[in-house]
Design brief:
This protein has a single domain, classed as Nucleic acid-binding proteins (OB fold (Dihydrolipoamide Acetyltransferase, E2P), Beta Barrel), CATH 2.40.50.140. A hairpin with a 5-residue loop joins strand 3 and strand 4. By secondary structure, it is mostly beta strands. 7% of the residues lie in helices and 52% in strands.
Length: 138
């Protein structure tokens, strides 16, 4: 089974493009983080970056709704591909997302549909006061 579920923050604004046949494709990066204690007992934070690709109507919605720093939940699969750059093969691993949930996006009512990627948006309480932007990996 090839299934991925991620919750993270966008590292940059999504890039929305269209194929020659008119199919939308949206790409962006998402950071997930973890924290643990090292052998000295000190807390260490580590961010992992993921390249996300969303095709079709969900991709079009993602391109319109999401912005840099937005918290998003994604569901999809891992896919690898290779290409040649300067005579060398380069392997790329991407998350091909089938669904996404904009967890803290607040678009204007006229800008976004009631669902994102075919899934109702989750209602998340506002960010707790004790958290600040320095707590995020970007």
């Amino acid at each position: 089974m090839n299934k991925v579920i991620l919750i993270g923050r966008l590292g940059r604004d999504p890039e929305l493009k269209y194929t020659g046949a008119g199919t939308a494709v949206c790409t962006f990066s998402v950071a997930t983080d973890e924290s643990y204690k090292d052998k000295n007992g000190e807390r260490v934070k580590r961010a992992e970056w993921h390249r996300i690709v969303i095709w079709g109507k969900p991709g079009e919605n993602a391109g319109k709704i999401l912005k840099r720093g937005a918290l998003v939940a994604l569901e999809g699969k891992i896919q690898s591909r290779e290409y040649e750059k300067d005579g060398a093969k380069v392997a790329v691993f991407e998350i091909i997302a089938h669904q996404f949930h904009a967890l803290d996006a607040k678009p204007a009512a006229s800008e976004a549909p009631a669902t994102a990627g075919g899934v109702p948006r989750a209602k998340i309480p506002p960010k707790p006061a004790e958290m600040n932007d320095a707590d995020y990996p970007f």
